[in-house]
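Make up an example, fold above all:
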Amino acid sequence: MTEDMHPYRTHTCGQLRLEDASRKARLSGWLHRKRDHGNLLFIDLRDHYGLTQIVIDVSSPLFETAEKARPESVLTVTGTVVKRSEDTINPSFPTGQVELRVEHIHVESPADTLPMQVAGDAEFSDDMRLRHRFLDLRRQGMHANIQLRSQVISSFRRHMTDQGFLEIQTPILTASSPEGARDYLTPSRNHPGKFYALPQAPQQFKQLLMVSGFDKYFQIAPCFRDEDARADRSPGEFYQLDFELAFATQEDVFSAIEPVLHDVFEEFSAARGVNAPPFPRITYAETMEKYGDDKPDLRNPLQMRDVTEAFRGSGFGLFARNVEKGAVVRALPAPGAASRPRSFFDKLNDWARDEGAGGLGYIIFAGGEAKGPIGKNLEEDRIAAIKEAVGAGDGDAVFFVCGQKKDAERFSAAARARVCAELGLLEENAFRFCWIVDYPMYELNEDTGQVEFSHNPFSMPQGGLEALETMDPLDILAYQYDIVCNGVELSSGAIRNHSPSIMYKAFKIAGYAKKEVEEQFGGLLSAFKFGAPPHGGAAPGIDRMVMLLAGEPNIREVIAFPMNQQAQDLLMGAPSAVEPRRLKELHIRLNLPPKLPGAKKTDDGSKEGEKAST
């Protein structure tokens, strides 16, 4: 054994090559896999950088040590690098032309029997993976995802810095703010009965930085929201590329971030195409009509058209009656679908019923005729108008969605995706960005009848104070926008309201008294009264972008230590109970809900809903 070597390694497990043959080397890593060939024992030794095959002869006094070592034990191995025989070369690995002949082996850390395997492609439950995340992260796919995440963040930092943006950190302990989700609250020991809030976003702080005279700000910002999990949103915390510019128009914001997104996605796209800037600008009204939602997947080429007037007073009584009651009709083209068998249309009709709709009506254009129940009952001039509106020709079909506007939009979006999938029209290996612009400033709460902010309360209304004073609030548009990629919303953003008078009026329309505005946003308002530049920005979600680049269907696959669907950290045991003395010094007394019938036992043996006292 060579004593002047590094105590753990001279090379990584992904480093040795054919030119290293005959050299002494020392490797340290995890026992990935063993293969016993009788006289020879082969071990794949793995570290962060790759795999190297090591080999031990049965005659070696080290054979028993290696044979007894369990998978995932940590080994330090010293030996001579040798060229593999031609029939054993493995071109799948960079180290596949060589192996290490063992001369010394030391078990640094033996592994117990594994609760889940690291080697191989076996599937395990989410709870198992999260409870043993340190094992899950050793697996090749997960390990690669976290590396990708790090590389993407580093690239974003370089691109933003190269554009002159300053990276500035904003507070984690702050005041509660109505950002649209529940805050995570932290009690104050020194101020009994008062709480800090973890920031849902650095919204007010980044605006204050603009007021402070900084021109371009960004940070990889942690954000905290007490909201339910879904495939593209992790409960608890997430990270975003938060940025803001002073003296900026909406187009300035777009011009600043578009090349960054394009270049980073192109850098890590693995040969998938990325549409070049400028990205399409689609108004909110247009996207709801053409795509049915405000997160359109532009890889899907199908675009709907409003054909409500073609059915008003028409011979197709079902739609005509609904239109008179305020319904809308959306037409969805299906290119080439006329050649499909009747079962194709019946299948889609059954799917629509399963989705809670009455069905999915259609017209088939074939042989110069309009076939199907709607085609037979609708006047020729109306059919011609529909055909022209959607750009259909002979050999195509058109599906129809009829209902009240919001219901029709929801279902038509699902129908667009379904028809695209059935026809195999979705563009593969591509990232397609677009901006959704001109969001309504306000919306009507159907339960309360109250006018509410529809997007971001800090946005500048188009038309400024005059619009707020003279227009119907529901007709006012805002300088608000979303960036969307492949049907995933990456970010909301806006040109901010930097005028106190406009801010007071905007919040008054949404039901906030002047005193409430001053209490909740006093710091921001005060700053605006001492000279505030026009400013705007956005904050694309890091987690969602890495999820897209990794080709993963769930955001948990690109986060090192995510919570589960119930916002629990199964590895660390959070959230957890705290000792009564800790609650006492925080001036908190628990008032838990009464015990619920059939409450499930929790991991600590107590039952959900048990009343606690301090």
The longest helix spans residues 140-162.
